[in-house]
Every structure is written in C-alpha cells, then in structure tokens.
Amino acid sequence: MSKVVREKNIDIAKGIAMILVVMGHCDNFELWSIEKFSSLFFMQLFIFLSGIFFNKNEINNFNDLFTAIKKKCLPIYLYYLKYEIAFYLLTNIFIKIGFYNPNLLYGGKNIGFISLDLSFIKNILKIALLMGREPFCGAFWFLVTLIFVVCEYSTLIYIGNKVFKNLKYRKIFINTTVLLMFLAGCVMSKTFNIPRISPSFTLILFYHLGNLYKFHKKEIMFNNAIIFLVCLIILNVLYHLGTISMNSNQFTNPLFLAVCSVCGIYMVMYLSNLIEKKSKLLSNLLSYIGEHTLPIVALQFISFKAVMLIQYLFGNISFSDLGLLKGANNSNLIYIFYVMCGVFIPLLLNRIYTEIKKRSKIIWKYQL
C-alpha cells in the first residue's frame, strides 16, 4: 500500500478553509456574513482538495474497488460514528447543564431527553445508517457527503477501467458521466432533493476536478496575483446576487455555483502557495490545522461553550442562551475568542488524546 505524501500547500489550503468554516459557524454579524461568503465555495474546495489524493490507477477489479472505498471511507465513517453516538448518549447531560435548550430548534427539530425505548434504538440506527446528526455534530454532514462522493467516484472509475480498455474512450466516459451526475444534482436542487445523495451528485464534479488537477499541476500553478484579485472581486459581487447551501443542495443556479466554486478554489489555493513561500510560521500553523481538520469538525460547536460559560459567569448572557449553537452576544470583539476556541480547543484536546494514547501503548508494551 502506497504511503500518502503530504503536500504542504494543500494542508495550508485545508487549514484556511477550516478556519473559514469555524468563522462562519459562530458568525452573528448582520452587515456582512462570513458564513454566507465562505458558503459560496468552502465545501467545493474541500471536495476538490480531497479529490487530489484519489488514485484511480489502484482500481482495476472489484476487490480493488472494495479496498479503495474501505480505505478512504471506513476511517471517516468510524470517526463520524464515534462522535455522533457519544454526543447522542450525552444529550440528557447537555440539556441539564444548558448546552442544549429544549425550547430552541436545532436543524428544524427540538432536542428532548432521551430514554431507553424504541426511539432510542431508532435514533442509534439512524446514526449508523448515516441519517442522524446531533447538534454538536452539525458539521458532520460534510463527512457523510464525502463518503457518498468517494463511493460514487470509485464505482465510476471501476466501471470505466472495466469496460473501456482504450484510455481515450475511458476518459470520455468518466468526464461525460461526471458532468451528467453534476447536472442531475442541479436538477434535483430544483425538484426532489435527497439528503446527502443530491449534494454528492452535485459535488462529484469538484472531486473529479481535484483529481484532474493532480495530473496538471505544472499547467495550473495558482500563482497569478491578478487572477486572485479578479476572483476575490467576483466573489464579493456574487455575494450580493445569490446564495449557496451545499448541505441542502440549494444554490441560485448551476452557473452561479460553478463560478463561485472556481473563484473560491483559485483564491484559497493562491493564498496557500503565497503563505508557504512567504511565512514559515504561518504556513506551519495553517498546515497543522489542515492536517487535523477532523477534530475541529467534531468539536468546534461544543468548544464555543468555553466562551459562553465565561460570558454566563460574568452575567453577559442568560442560562437559556447557553443552548445557542452558534454562540451568544458574539457580533463584536468576543467573536475573535469564539473563532480561536473553535479552532484551537479541538486541536489541544486531540493532542492530549494522542499523547495519552501514545504513552499508554508504551506502558502496555513495557509491562508485557
């Protein structure tokens, strides 16, 4: 099995995108929404970056297909499963300490106390079948969608490799099918949306573009400052002309989605290359964040509570406000602390967990 070689500029791009996600998730500003701006491109960017590491040459038979899907999807699924179930089992505690407010809507539903009955089993099964989403795991929709994208794209590559021995016809088949799936996702956005499936159809195009970029890095350098500025201007103009919500597969129109995605990808990739060349300190920080996005995805919302608890202790917010998922009274300088906690508390907890795990293994090995 080939070892994945990390590319620093890619990790920096992931780090920038992850910070934008956290900034969006605790954004309560009215004049200019960071959440609305980052939503124009961040999901497509993540999918694009993921596609760079897909190796289509490894899939030549059904066993290869199974291995590829297992290798890429199982770790993500287990990570999703661990936190979804843990947060679900802690629901009653979260309600009692005010982290969940039964009077508020979370994703269109109220959160109530759980009990060991049929609904408990039903909810556990929903989580196992990628249909559940606890409030603190709200960002996990990205992981679920990525699993579907990887499965769909891997299957497509398998069919292409199996049916078409001629490389030219294989490329035509894959490019055409990806485009048709993208168009199908666009049609579903206006007709009948299937949660997680519809977004994966739309987003498979950007996964494919990421995979194509891997073979054309010399031609696509992401180093033109003028193009970067044009992309930044276009995104700020389009910010006022429409919206994108990939979670629900909703966007103004396919052209709007495509332009925002391309501009956002170029903008962040340009910044990542520039930072890698100009600032060792910042590049190391952002690449570290990019290497450890999963803990931030899992723990950012609960990490916001650190700021909220301090606000509550000083009387700045009420007990009921503790249940607000995106934070309270944060359309001011306190917002900076929300962002910092949302990014760095998960990294700290992950580092502590990793060290404990490492030392436990050493102790266990020494005892044996």
Describe what this molecule looks like in 3D.
The chain is built from 14 helices and four strands. With 368 residues, it is an all-alpha fold. The strands form two sheets. A two-stranded antiparallel ribbon has the order 1-2. Strand 3 and strand 4 (250-251) form a beta hairpin. Helix 4 packs antiparallel against helix 7 (141-163) and helix 11 crosses helix 12.
In short:
By secondary structure, this protein is mainly alpha-helical. The protein contains 14 helices and four strands. It has a two-stranded antiparallel ribbon with strand order 1-2.
Weakly predicted, low-confidence segments? none
Please give the share of residues in helix.
55-70%
The helix/strand class is mainly alpha
Q: What is the 3D shape?
A: globular
From the alpha-carbon coordinates, what is the Rg to the nearest angstrom?
A: 21 Å
Order of helices and strands: HHHHHEEHHHHHEEHHHH
Gap between N and C termini, in Å?
30 Å
Average pLDDT across residues?
Answer: 92
The biggest sheet amounts to: 2 strands, antiparallel
Strand line-up across the major sheet = 1-2
Summary tags:
two-stranded antiparallel ribbon; mainly alpha; 4 strands; 67% helix; globular; 368 residues
Reconstruct the topology from this structure.
Layout: H1 8-25, H2 34-38, H3 42-51, H4 62-89, H5 91-96, E1 105-106, E2 109-110, H6 118-128, H7 141-163, H8 167-190, H9 197-213, H10 225-238, E3 244-245, E4 250-251, H11 254-278, H12 280-291, H13 293-313, H14 334-367
Antiparallel strand pairs: 1-2, 3-4
Helix pairs in contact: 1-3, 1-11, 1-12, 1-13, 1-14, 3-9, 3-11, 4-7, 7-8, 7-9, 8-9, 10-11, 11-12, 13-14
